[in-house]
Model the fold of this input.
Amino acid sequence: MKRIAPVFLMLVFLTGLFAAEKTGPKVFISVDMEGIWGVVHGDQVSAQGHDYGPARKWMAEDVNAVIEGLFSAGASEIVVNDSHGSMRNILAQDLNPRVSLITGSPKPLSMMQGVDNTFDACVFVGYHAKAGTASSILDHTYSGATIRSIKVNNLELPELGLNAAIAGAFGVPVILLSGDGETCNQARSILGSEVVTVAVKESFGRYAAKLHPQEEARKRLREGAKEALLKRSKIAPLRLKPPYAFELEFHNSNQTEMPALVPGVKVTGARSVAFTADDFIEGFKLMRALIALAGYQ
Ligand SMILES: [Zn+2]
Done:
């Protein structure tokens, strides 16, 4: 028996080693639509739009290119969250069959539903610039109809910043972002120079862009995803400092009226409200509820 014990322990060790080698990084992908290759107009990003059909296919194709790159860099599990509008844009059968799809709306964490501290990295595909960005396809922040700007601790953030801070609250870094050139600039300025960005188009305005050749764009997505996952340890999660002071500026003064009814929410101007949260995720949820209330007519 004394001789069997070390052999047994060695077998347990080797089995553990084998299992550890099989388990690669787990990646969360949030995919929006405005920054997808080919998309330049609202008619392409709503189910009522006459150009919607092709655009939802391009959305799956951009994500599949990223997925291919992530698997080639050793990812063992990938979860994709459809993050645009109805959040039912990607047809499940068009997505790489090895990944999970989170589809439908509303979801408590919206574009970030599904992320938690079991993930090793987060990727944003098809993202767009913040409201008020010149020459960037379909710029807005969460709600084009109500939001002029969202600030946290006095820093104006695009969706990519707010969503990265959610991932950051779980200790997960955003390693890659794709969209138009201006969105990539905003990603580097907020997330740091190590984040990998892939521009699939260069915008001339809110509704016009030069698309990079499709083959080239998808190749860049594949290679960017591979590079990003391999260098993920160099990319820090975005961690904002608590307490989190949120300020929402709306387009019109009437849009502050319903949000102002919520306890803890202060009116800070004719078109703006503010509140403070100790927990970023709780703050984000209140922000979303206020945006919904701002749209009340
Ligand atoms: Zn969108």
In short: The mean pLDDT is 94.
